[in-house]
Specification:
With 122 residues, the protein is an alpha/beta fold. Helices cover 46% and strands 23% of the residues. The chain has five helices and five strands, in the order βαβαβαββαα. α2 links the parallel β2 and β3. The longest helix has 16 residues. Belongs to the thioredoxin family. It comes from Nocardioides turkmenicus. This is Thioredoxin.
Length: 122
């Protein structure tokens, strides 16, 4: 599936309405962003079951600010509407594959239950 442009109007619904969503925060003037883009686009074609979104931080400054983006590119991964990964920097293809595999394999319900248990126990 090709990447989708995300903005303030569709970011939240995209993240909450899909099982897994990866989001690339980027800007056209950013060299590492341009290097990462073909890797990200190729991964989107290899994983049609995952939504791959892109946020242009220049056009969506308020959204980038709300997401606490301080460096680009930044990759975020959401599973069942929960942020499960966030890291700045362009990833090489093997590292992106590791992130995707980890997010796919993550039992988010179990992780959320364990987190709630820790929070209530402290």
């Amino acid at each position: 599936m090709p990447t989708v442009e995300l903005g303030a109007e569709n970011f939240e619904s995209t993240v909450t309405d899909n099982e897994i969503v990866l989001v690339d925060f980027w800007a056209s003037w950013c060299g590492p962003c341009r290097q990462f883009s073909p890797i990200y686009d190729a991964a989107s074609e290899e994983h049609p079951e995952i939504v791959f979104g892109k946020v242009d931080t220049e056009a969506e400054q308020a959204l980038a600010g709300a997401a606490n983006i301080t460096s680009i590119p930044t990759l975020m991964a959401f599973k069942k509407g929960n942020l499960v990964f966030s890291q700045p920097g362009a990833l090489p293809a093997p590292a992106l594959k590791q992130v995707i595999d980890a997010v796919v394999d993550l039992d988010i319900d179990k992780a959320l239950a364990e987190h709630a248990e820790k929070e209530s126990g402290e």
